[in-house]
Amino acid sequence: MSAPAEETQKYRDHEGPYFGNFGGRWMPESLVAALDEVERTFREAKADPAFIAEFQRLSRDYTGRPSLLTEVTRFAAEAGPARMFLKREDLNHTGSHKINNVLGQALLAQRMGKTRLIAETGAGQHGVATATAAALMGMECVVYMGSADTKRQALNVARMRLLGAEVVPVDHGAQTLKDAINEALRDWVASVENTHYLLGTVAGPHPFPEMVRWFHQIIGEEAREQILSMEGRLPDAVAACVGGGSNAMGLFHGFLDDPEVALYGFEAGGDGVETGRHASAITLGRSGVLHGARSFLMQDEDGQTVDSHSISAGLDYPSVGPEHAYLAETGRATYEPVTDAECMASFEMLCRTEGIIPAIESAHALAGAARLSRSWGEAGEGKIIIINLSGRGDKDVETAAEWFRLLPGQKNDPVAETDTAENGADGPSPAPETGVQG
Amino acid sequence: MSTTTAVDQRPATPASKTERAIEAARAQGRAAFVGYLPAGYPDKETSIAAAIELARNGADVIEIGVPYSDPVMDGPVIQQATTEVLARGFRLPEVFEIVEAVVEATDAAVLVMTYYNLIDRMGAEEFASRLAAAGGAGAITPDLIPDEAGEWIAATDRHGLDRVFLTAPSSSPERVEKIVAASRGFVYGVSVMGVTGARDQVSDAAERVVAAAKSAGAERVCVGLGVSTRSHVEEIGRYADGVIVGTALVTALRDGGPSAVATLTAELTGAGASR
Ligand SMILES: Cc1ncc(COP(=O)(O)O)c(C=O)c1O
């Protein structure tokens, strides 16, 4: 094949450990041997047709890939001038994109002879996916989850337990995703002999950012083929929510070297970045090291991690995968915050206009894309945005019901103002954030 | 052990404060005792008093742990202590004040033990310069591997500070060589695969960790993680150049204040009996 001579840098070909100034391995020495083993196994597996065939078989027959690309005309019409297509990762088995990476890493764990999987989880989607793979492959499974998140995502805690996993609530720190990762790392240091740490996003030490991206690349590859065959052209923009950044990296990867396609990542803006209660690591963070990677990090003047806040447990993380930090620094991708309120408005709009209940994480991408479409004005007519619908919203029904005052006994008022007023001048936050208070 | 000849071949006074402290213990025919306490726990003055008790009761090297929001190498006891310190509004410059106070009051080599983002945020050069100005001997960095340590190595060289990297039971021979070459002061031999916390037994991995570091050329290897009794100290002292105790001392400080630290240190170092 004669590939066209490529003048521009190939973003797609980037491998770890570094993405520009970001990435690396800022990790205790005790874990370096395990990381080396994972890296070696990953590189061998990628080159092994039997591994690829097994991963593809599971993706097709178990996950249900390829996932659909659905045009949402009623939602798009309310949002602005552009046309919108959803990449339906919500239709995957277990209800989110997380299963792609989990099946890949679980196969690697088997290849390494590991019998136990551990994972962190925020929204519970990654924990559910890991518990699912462990059940499928006959492995032991322990999932660490911040205790604030076990409350706001109680449904997923029950799902994991049904699947045979042990769920360990983590009471330290902010009791959210970051603290769950700390605890998983502590487990791994002591258990690495028989245990694989199945990290759920494109963060962490090398080789996780590169490897997790690789298992999610299928999202962008499918989306690219689908839009080409449906519309005969590439989209003008693709959009995804960014917590650690795995669903975004998976979608972006299909378009990284198409300069005409704009890439948008939407971070959790919480109560608004100006309030300090948010999870917008790229927008307001600065370079630092956490959980094994150099990236943008929400930190105070001393370098202590600042607690993040978001209505979405899955985006409630004070850092971001290093490749996103790199794409932000080079300007290849644009990252913007979306507040809880903006997110929930789009959440409701998708429910009402399309009959699809999105994960609250994914609703950040919907809101960001709607804002983008509006910002184009008339020029947006006929433009195409692909949005990653990274997960379905079953797990969020309770949070949404509280937000919209749909529960028996609640007045049908928007909850946003009253809650902000109650929590307004609280200085150092007194109690762990548990999403919307009822 | 053929330590005497080895000692004689070294310069009489190594530039490194930590090396001098360890060699002084060796000259007395024993392994150095390294005691860890968190900065500012339970408050600044008490933490200084407790560290001084460490030195008075036989500690040769003192590690002042810097409280950090995400201490992945620490078990529940140290986590709880450092979380309390952070909750009362601890700020980083307090560490340098504590180091300075302990250096003034004792002859021990005083190192800080810090997760790397705290150094990174201040800037490696600035951190090293302030640590040196406070009289600190150097730093132990539990989540920094030599592969990522370019700036820190340069900064510690400029300021004549020791930098202690960790070597683990899982470290390959190539990695052990890299770690030994990058370290100054001593090499921290991690005795078990795990986090900090008192344990009943010393893992048999510890002796292999020391042997691996020695065969890679390390002159001083101290062993830590899980050491909590006098018999652990004696056992490790037979093959290592120093013994590191943390959690047991933090528990003593928590439950009985500086005087409990004094009693436990005397017991662990053998200073309580006859030395
Ligand atoms: C549905 C869904 N989308 C997105 C995320 C955020 O993760 P990432 O940024 O790695 O895609 C999560 C995490 O829990 C999730 O459950």
Report what the structure shows.
The complex is a heterodimer of chains A (438) and B (275). Chain A has a domain at 69-95 and 216-426: Rossmann fold. Chain A is built from 16 helices and 15 strands. Chain A has helices at 32-46, 49-63, 73-79, 98-111, 125-137, 147-152, 154-162, 177-191, 208-231, 246-253, 281-284, 322-330, 340-354, 360-376, 397-403, 416-423, and strands spanning 18-19, 22-26, 69-71, 83-88, 116-121, 140-146, 166-170, 195-197, 237-242, 262-272, 277-279, 286-290, 292-297, 333-339, 384-389. In chain A, strands 3, 4, 9, 10, 11, 14 and 15 form a seven-stranded mixed β-sheet that branches. In chain A, strands 1-2-13-12 form a four-stranded antiparallel β-sheet. In chain A, helix 10 links the parallel strand 9 (237-242) and strand 10 (262-272). In chain A, helix 3 (73-79) packs across helix 13, helix 4 (98-111) packs parallel to helix 5 (125-137) and helix 5 runs parallel beside helix 7 (154-162). The termini of chain A are far apart. Chain B contains twelve helices and nine strands. Chain B has a nine-stranded parallel β-sheet with strand order 5-4-3-2-1-9-8-7-6. In chain B, helix 3 packs parallel to helix 5 and helix 6 (116-122) packs across helix 7. The model of chain B is unreliable at 1-11 (pLDDT under 50). The chains are: A alpha/beta (438), B alpha/beta (275). Chains A and B meet through strand 2, helix 1, helix 8 and strand 12 of A and helix 4, helix 6 and strand 6 of B. The complex binds pyridoxal-5'-phosphate. Pyridoxal-5'-phosphate (PLP) is lined by residues 96, 122-123, 125-126, 201, 241-248, 314-315, 359, 361-362, 390-391 of chain A.
